Amino acid sequence: MKDSPLLDKSFDFALSIIRSAQDLQGSREYILSKQILRSGTAIGALLREAEFAASHADYINKFTVAVKEANETEYWLLLLYRGGYLKEDPFNSLHLTCLELIKMLVSSIKTLKQRTPTIKKG
Q1: Dihedral of alpha carbons 40, 70, 3, 53, sign
Q2: What percent of the chain clears pLDDT 90, i.e. is strictly above it?
Q3: What pTM was computed for the model?
Q4: What does the pLDDT look like over 64-78, one tens digit per residue?
Q5: Cα(13)–Cα(16) distance, rounded to whole angstroms?
Q6: Looking at the predicted structure, is the pLDDT value of residue 120 above 60?
Q7: CA distance linking residue 73 with residue 85, whole number of Å
Q8: What is the distance between the alpha carbons of residues 63 and 108, in angstroms, rounded to a whole number?
Q9: 90-98 CB contacts, 8 Å cutoff, 24+ apart
Q10: Which string of b and e fits 13-42 if b means at least 16 CB within 10 Å?
Q11: How many C-beta atoms surround the C-beta of residue 46 within 10 A?
């Protein structure tokens, strides 16, 4: 999965989440900053884990958990924005990228499930 647009986007997204979490911690919003930091950085970490998956099913599972983390991250973004902790411009950028990641992950999972390897009988 090296040189993957999905891996690159998730890494860049994690960096943006880290910066946003630092800003939130600077304004003393510790609990929510830790939540979004955990879920927002987990997406790319799970994709990296998938590179060494024990099986095809494990590989798909890593992607499945990554999409769940992306969905959770979207929840925290919406909560932070609507709660007045995150300004409109940073929210719009992060939210758009998060939605793109979700779409890419869902599409990848569908493709991976269609490519389930067959076991050769000897």
Answers
A1: positive
A2: 85
A3: 0.90
A4: 999 999 999 999 999
A5: 5
A6: no
A7: 15
A8: 8
A9: 90/20, 90/23, 93/16, 94/13, 94/16, 94/17, 94/20, 97/9, 97/12, 97/13, 97/16, 98/13, 98/40, 98/70, 98/73, 98/74
A10: bbeebeebbeebeeeebeebbebbbebbbb
A11: 21
